Amino acid sequence: MNVFELRDRLVSDYASYTRSFINIKDPLIERAVDSALRAGRFWPEPLLQLNPTFVPGGTIDHLVADDTLHAECAKIFRIAKSDTDHTGKPLLLHMHQREAVLKAKKDKKSYVLTSGTGSGKSLTYIMPIVDHVLRNGSGRGIQAIVVYPMNALANSQAEELGKFLKKGYPEGKPPVRFARYTGQEKGPEREAIRSNPPDILLTNYMMLELLLTRSEDRELVRAAQGLRFLVFDELHTYRGRQGADVALLIRRCRFAFGGHDIICIGTSARRQPAQPRVPKSIRGRDPGTFGLSWPRPPHGGTGTARVVVWSDRAGPVRREAPFWPNVPATPRLRWKPRLQNRESGYWQESSAGRQILSVEVEGRASPILLGSRTTS
Prior knowledge:
By secondary structure, the protein is α/β, with parallel strands linked by helices.
């Protein structure tokens, strides 16, 4: 598929649709509107950005070996599992995923993870939650609540959880139970959740508000006493008055679920670098969205690594799996040979993939307009 041809085709189809309901009688206005349409004023230039290569952080097996995660996690968190192949392949972690798990498991601290789209933020809270349920025992009430800003995200996460927790286990007997409670459920399904609460509840902030106030949901509130994890995915979407409402809702949840030992986790795609930290935009001068006192995070790297590095003697050279302190050895990263050994590969990564954030730190480049860069 040629993505540029696809873009042109979509714009052409939308332009035809737009013109179909424009009927201007004044010739001057008609020419002006027609000129604007032909100039593409109503659709922006395409954006170009390369996804960065994140620093590797070992495997699930490494975290199991040092008892950070329960032994069953090595069987659960594998990729490419199917109905015929329940074993799948080992799951390689990024550095920021490993650090987030350690923050929740070893330090038992709340955190906000800021990282770009597609960087595996969901796993950073799913892994410690599943580990906690495995160690604490399934069927002991709601042990984690994960809140999504949109039902589509909750639906997608339910599907992904099903791949990890259902494939390879007997029908109806997963090691950790989860359920979606977003308002889309029919009456019998809602009653089943209330009568037999899951270990992990996937919901949205409106349903969480109703859960705290509706008499028919009192059983769920009782089941969530001693809640261990309260997660808000895509935390950056809650702004202004809605952000204030959500901040108050979180405080009410911490009070209603009876404890100050709840580990609060937020994910945000608004800032770099990709590491567990509390951005100023979320922390502010007050205790923050979660009503907690956040320690100042240590300064760290961006969590990404170059695919191609430059050598004055040999031109662009291939970068092996980068060394990172305290990270178990991981399989060598595989790169496209045609890209990694050429000057064009270094130029592409420098132009659309990486940008200098400070004297010693590089980070993910901001998207560029396709028409804003020219080559000599």
